[in-house]
């Protein structure tokens, strides 16, 4: 017979796979385990499930699988069916579903009784996923290997390799997906349930980081562009109705953008990612900007019954605020105010001095002196002409009063336009400061997380 067949028959002829392979029951079976992360298949934030593909290895000593190589053609290693020998019942505590793992039917056995069981496993485990920092989040998920039945006196666990070698081993990791493997930490501990026997467990912490480039391009940049356009919209004239329609269009576009990206954002019942709060605040800023625009347009809208600007408003906005805001043409405001006051004073003086007689612009004394020398027949014609002149004077006075009233309305509208312009600059700079502070805060947080 070939050496392999003779050795396989020698080892398995009287082997009892139902009992732990030790000659003295007090002897502890030490199982050394090791894993290498091959791929991160999916991260389900909603169901808090991590799916990974790992290469798992375990190693233990079977005292009933030993032989002398000299009797078997110097054969020192043989592969045996895994169903024919004893295998430790080591499971992963975080298992939530049976993955599609390939079945490996054999294990390697050396002549000293050392058994090596190497197999790939698709692991679907529960993990507490924190999405607050999305898309710059780092997740730390644990894989806890332990014997489900045997306590630490029967089966003890240890690391196959040194922790430093396990930590930075990315030799088999396929790193072209959404997630990047940072490192794998290992930790051994004992635990007990309700004062029962102690159990050994080996924890592996798989630390992964999301690659944020896709989300930065598809989520952050469009939002930033829309906010920049909103800021640029402040340079439209405040008395123009186009600014209102422009900002309403921006608000509508941002609402459509949020509907599109709502499926991209991870959804959990625990919390909301910061980027979702960022989108909501950006929407609130757009609403505030639209409200400010409506206020300014309402303020500078020309109305015939609009009252004069109060003096305290003129003092605060047209004098103090222009100095604080460094408005270069603030002298024009004061000049226009002086001109409007001069026009009103001139109109009042014209009203007091325009005492026209029924005889037109002639002095009554001159008309009286001339009347003594003119013929009596001319007096009747002069009386008829005076009636016509009175009608012309009334029409001229009405036209002058209308023009003066219209000029007064124009002055009032001009004053409100100046107030609206200064107030628009003030609110724009406050809005710009709020947007900049908000952007710097978020940029600082995300840079720290990176």
UniProtKB/TrEMBL annotation:
<keyword id="KW-0325">Glycoprotein</keyword>
<dbReference type="InterPro" id="IPR049944">
    <property type="entry name" value="LGIC_TM_5-HT3"/>
</dbReference>
<keyword id="KW-1133">Transmembrane helix</keyword>
<dbReference type="InterPro" id="IPR018000">
    <property type="entry name" value="Neurotransmitter_ion_chnl_CS"/>
</dbReference>
<comment type="similarity">
    <text>Belongs to the ligand-gated ion channel (TC 1.A.9) family. 5-hydroxytryptamine receptor (TC 1.A.9.2) subfamily. HTR3A sub-subfamily.</text>
</comment>
<keyword id="KW-0628">Postsynaptic cell membrane</keyword>
<feature type="domain" description="Neurotransmitter-gated ion-channel transmembrane">
    <location>
        <begin position="219"/>
        <end position="441"/>
    </location>
</feature>
<feature type="transmembrane region" description="Helical">
    <location>
        <begin position="248"/>
        <end position="269"/>
    </location>
</feature>
<keyword id="KW-1071">Ligand-gated ion channel</keyword>
<comment type="function">
    <text>Forms serotonin (5-hydroxytryptamine/5-HT3)-activated cation-selective channel complexes, which when activated cause fast, depolarizing responses in neurons.</text>
</comment>
<feature type="region of interest" description="Disordered">
    <location>
        <begin position="337"/>
        <end position="375"/>
    </location>
</feature>
<feature type="transmembrane region" description="Helical">
    <location>
        <begin position="426"/>
        <end position="449"/>
    </location>
</feature>
<dbReference type="InterPro" id="IPR036734">
    <property type="entry name" value="Neur_chan_lig-bd_sf"/>
</dbReference>
<keyword id="KW-0407">Ion channel</keyword>
<feature type="compositionally biased region" description="Polar residues">
    <location>
        <begin position="337"/>
        <end position="356"/>
    </location>
</feature>
<dbReference type="GO" id="GO:0004888">
    <property type="term" value="F:transmembrane signaling receptor activity"/>
</dbReference>
<keyword id="KW-0813">Transport</keyword>
<keyword id="KW-0732">Signal</keyword>
<keyword id="KW-0675">Receptor</keyword>
<keyword id="KW-0406">Ion transport</keyword>
<dbReference type="InterPro" id="IPR036719">
    <property type="entry name" value="Neuro-gated_channel_TM_sf"/>
</dbReference>
<feature type="transmembrane region" description="Helical">
    <location>
        <begin position="275"/>
        <end position="297"/>
    </location>
</feature>
<keyword id="KW-0770">Synapse</keyword>
<dbReference type="InterPro" id="IPR006029">
    <property type="entry name" value="Neurotrans-gated_channel_TM"/>
</dbReference>
<dbReference type="InterPro" id="IPR038050">
    <property type="entry name" value="Neuro_actylchol_rec"/>
</dbReference>
<dbReference type="Pfam" id="PF02932">
    <property type="entry name" value="Neur_chan_memb"/>
</dbReference>
<keyword id="KW-1003">Cell membrane</keyword>
<dbReference type="GO" id="GO:0045211">
    <property type="term" value="C:postsynaptic membrane"/>
</dbReference>
<protein>
    <recommendedName>
        <fullName>5-hydroxytryptamine receptor 3A</fullName>
    </recommendedName>
</protein>
<comment type="subunit">
    <text>Forms homopentameric as well as heteropentameric serotonin-activated cation-selective channel complexes with HTR3B or HTR3C or HTR3D or HTR3E. The homomeric complex is functional but exhibits low conductance with modified voltage dependence, and decreased agonist and antagonist affinity. Heteropentameric complexes display properties which resemble that of neuronal serotonin-activated channels in vivo. Interacts with RIC3.</text>
</comment>
<keyword id="KW-0472">Membrane</keyword>
<dbReference type="Pfam" id="PF02931">
    <property type="entry name" value="Neur_chan_LBD"/>
</dbReference>
<dbReference type="InterPro" id="IPR006201">
    <property type="entry name" value="Neur_channel"/>
</dbReference>
<dbReference type="GO" id="GO:0005230">
    <property type="term" value="F:extracellular ligand-gated monoatomic ion channel activity"/>
</dbReference>
<keyword id="KW-1015">Disulfide bond</keyword>
<dbReference type="InterPro" id="IPR008133">
    <property type="entry name" value="5HT3_rcpt_A"/>
</dbReference>
<dbReference type="InterPro" id="IPR006202">
    <property type="entry name" value="Neur_chan_lig-bd"/>
</dbReference>
<dbReference type="InterPro" id="IPR008132">
    <property type="entry name" value="5HT3_rcpt"/>
</dbReference>
<feature type="domain" description="Neurotransmitter-gated ion-channel ligand-binding">
    <location>
        <begin position="5"/>
        <end position="212"/>
    </location>
</feature>
<keyword id="KW-0812">Transmembrane</keyword>
<feature type="transmembrane region" description="Helical">
    <location>
        <begin position="213"/>
        <end position="236"/>
    </location>
</feature>
